[in-house]
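Structure record:
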Amino acid sequence: MKRRDMLKKSLGGGALLAFTNPIDLISNASKVQAKDSSVGNPLRFPPVFTNGGTMTLSETNVNVWPGQNTLGMVINGSYPGPSVVIQKGATFTANFVNQLNEPATIHWHGVSTPELMDGHPKDAIPAGGNYTYTFPVGNRGGTYFYHAHADMRTAEQVYKGFAGFFIVDDLAELPLNLPRGNFDIPLCLQDHRIADIPQFTYNVQMNDMMFGYLGDTVLVNGTPEAYLNVNTTLYRFRILNGSNGRVYKVALSDNSPFHIIATDGGLKDAAVQATSFYLSPGERVDILINFSSYAIGQSVTLKSQAFSAPGMGTYRQGIELDLLRFDITGNQSSGGVVPASMPSITYYNPAEVKAARNFILSVAGGTMNVHKINGLSFEMERIDWQTPLNSLEEWKIVNATNNLHPMHSHEAQFQVYSRNGITDLAPNDKGWKDTVLVYPFETVRTLVKFTEYKGIFLYHCHNLEHEDDGMMLNFKIVDPIGINETGETLPDTFELKQNFPNPFNPSTSISFDLNVSGNVEMNVYDQTGKLVATLVDNYVPAGSHKVIFNASGLSSGEYFVRMVAGDIVKTIKMTLVK
């Protein structure tokens, strides 16, 4: 019996870490702030990982709340854990040693790696085992991270501390005169529950499974009630949402403006002024804050503002939370500026899309495996679709649920194209992304092209309760359509055409062209992901085919046709109007 079928309560969250500076690798002592007379604890900064060394994962007691021990899953005995800081173009190497009593694997979130380095759960390292991760770092300079990714164990392992920053530094940023050294600060946000202090207690109930394991207090770089002494100058803050399910609306307590300069995949093409932005689990945003308007002795707090969100119970989405207090204590200058111009980004042209894929997010009834993509729950050995190298694709995400879903793709950065047809995007959406927040009943279009590695990778919701509940699919990056490594022609397996008429009542025709004979499965699902009809489930010869769908017994609304032939999956949406 599969572990997912046996599991009753094992979903979880995201605890994350921080780093010292990418260029000036200063000591921890020089960055720790002396605690003043106010309430709070100085912001922590973890050690920097030495490239080529060992990353040992163990469960041990660490100090999180002053004077108390917390049992955590940590790397090299440190919480927060060590941060990888590496130059673009270098080769990263780490010998990972798993001292837990369960499987574990590391996913390098946002970083392009070969298949066997990606940390797929199929490649988990057993208890007591070890594995060497090594890969060239070709990503743009930016704020990335690593975290646990074992099957059905991701949430709890990350929540208990198994994660850290992966900072790619790029000397090409130097001419921009951005703040560096002590003025370039990573901040990981992760919520916990006050009632559980001092432990990282992880006890998932039904409400947690549906909306994520939410807390009512936030640790920043593993620091409770964190404060940071700052100067009256410009700072860069690299903000990572390391929570399992919590979405933040980040702002300053006095609503002062700041500049957004980077998203998941590095610098934007312009510094954009804002007073707030949303940040979902797995997303990163870099901002510039200028403290020159404050007087020494003043304080201002980085907060999550209240916002309307689905959910119920004790721990709710959208509540107001304090994140980090800035105490203005000095007048040293960073020498940094807000760039008047930044390096350009080449945006994909939707007219050049070679394939369009639909991903319908749904929630079914029951208590297990209720979070689905295209009506499917994750299966380790199943390949859900194939994507050719160097082929621009549109991935349309249709959220058919009253919930928030941060959707994350492994292996390559993508670009958000539109939200509900609107292409004028918020600054935290525009640029290179690997995670995008999809709001309830929203449709988001993204454009993606895989150019580096072939192999099996993952697409999933980064609400870690949803991921561990099966809201995750495998896809395989393959040779370009038309030729493989031996020069042989590759068939384009089939074409699924839009139904006609559409909208329809009560019947509609669905056509498809099959280039290779084989088994075909075609099903119809409603907006909740419930199967309402099976139209084809048998061997079909190559050629053109047509089936009729009669919906006389169904209610008006949107329905989805999902067709599978071989390893290829395609989906269309159709509308029944009565």
User: Anything to note?
Assistant: Residues 1-37, 482-491 have pLDDT under 50 and may be disordered. The longest strand covers residues 54-63.
